[in-house]
Amino acid sequence: MSSLKSQKVLDALEQMPELNQWFLSQTKPVTMADPTSFHVWSLIRAMRADDRNRCRMWTESVLLLLESCTSVVNHILETDTLLNALGYSLTDIYTPLAEAAILSGEGSRSFCVLQKLADLSGLAAFRFLSAWTAFNDEKPNVCIAECEKASEPFAPIHTLLGQALLESGHIMEAIDALKVATKVAPLDPLPKVQLIKAYLVVGVPVEAMRLVDECRRIIGTNIEIECLAAMAISAGQGQKPEFAERTLLQFGKHIEENPFDFEAFALAIDVASNLSRKDWCQTYSKNLDLRDHCDMGSVLSKLPGILKRMNDLRWYDVAQIIIDKTLVVTQLQGTGSSLTQ
Fold first, then answer.
1. Predicted pLDDT of residue 27
2. Does residue 338 surpass a pLDDT of 60?
C-alpha cells in the first residue's frame, strides 16, 4: 500500500496523463545517447518510484546529465520543449519531486541538485525552486541567500525572499523585497498578502488596509484576506468605518458557509464590537456551530477575550448565546471544567 508521500507524487503524475503515456510508449531503453528524452524519462521514472528510492533516482540522473552537458541552458530549453509538446514544463515535474523530497527527509539532497541547476543554467525558475526547497526545509537563511543570487527582478523569488525575511525578523528588508514583487507582478495577490503581514508587524495598518482592498479587487472574497483586514482594524490607527463594514460583510458570508470556523468568528466579533453592531453579533452567534470540525482548545483560549468584550459592551444576551453553545460541546467532550475555571 502506498504511503501518503508516495500517493501525493502519484496523484501529481495522474494529473499529467500525457507524461505517463509517453513514458510507457518508450519501447527501447532510454539512454544518455538522447539526453533530452533521458531527462524526461528519468524524472517520470522517479515519480513512479517509492519514497525510499525516488529522490535518489531523480537527483542521481540529473547530476549525471549535468556532468555530460556542454551547455546546461540549451539542454534545459530542449528538455522543456519536449515537455511543452506534451503540455507541461520541467517545473511541473520538479515541484512535486522537490516537495516529496522534503516530506521524506531528503530536502538537502533535493536542494543541492536544484542549486546546481540554478548555478549552471542561471534560470530563475530553478533558483526559485532551490530557495523554495530551503525555505520549506526550515532553512530560512539558506533560502534568503539563494533568493539574493537572482540577477533580475522575478516576482516569485522576491515574494519568497520577503516571506523568509519576514519570518526571520528582518521586517524592513522584507518590505523592500515584497515591494519589488508587487511592482513586477501587480496582479499577483501573494506578495501583497505578505506585505500586508509586514505592515501589520511594523504598525502601519493604513497601508495594510490599502493592500487588502487591492487584493479584494484581484481575487474577490477570501477569508485569509479578511482575517488580515480584521487585524488591521484592530490596530486602530486610521480606521475607516466603510472598510470595517465591508470586512464584516465578507465575514458574514464566510461564517454562513462555515459556521464551525471559530477563528474567523473571533476576529469578526472584534470588528463588529468596534462598529457597535450588536445585531451582527446576535445573528452570527446563533449561526455558530461548535459541534464539528472545531478545535475546542482554540475556542477556550479565545473565549475569555470575547466574553470580556461582550461584558464591556453590556451585550449579555450575546455572551449567553456563546456560553450556552460552548458549554454543550465542552460537557460532551468532558472539557467543561476548563471553561468554568
1. 83
2. no
